[in-house]
Amino acid sequence: MYFNFPHPSVWLSLEAIKLSDELIATLEIQQGAGLAEMLNVNKIFYNHEAVRIWVQRELDNGLPYYNRIGELGSRFMACVNPHDEWLCNEQIDYPLGW
């Protein structure tokens, strides 16, 4: 029997899968298409796949251990809403070259 749940692999660590699942649930990210380009991920990936790849990249780039979901949420919102002023009052360091 095949289940469409990601498993740790060469590309995704178990930590990235768990964090991305929590981020997807917290932000209620819908499956579909369109987020990959905003997250600077190859456009062939659907939203949940793109989020998992993006989270793995954030981990590889040194995501701080403290408050990981909060930090990921802030970085995610900065990627999908790069011009929104409400994100924070200080300059945002866009990790993906926005």
Description:
The structure is a single chain. By secondary structure, the protein is mainly α. It has one domain (12-80). 45% of the residues lie in helices and 0% in strands. The chain contains four helices and no strands. The protein is globular. Residues 87-92 have low confidence and may be disordered.
Instruction: Estimate what percentage of residues fall within beta strands.
Output: under 5%
Order of helices and strands: HHHH
Question: How many independent structural domains?
Answer: 1
- Regarding quaternary structure, what we see is single chain
Structural class: mainly alpha
Question: What is the radius of gyration computed over CA atoms, rounded to a whole number of angstroms?
Answer: 13 Å
Distance between the termini: 42 Å
Helix content: 40-55%
Q: Give the number of DSSP strands.
A: 0
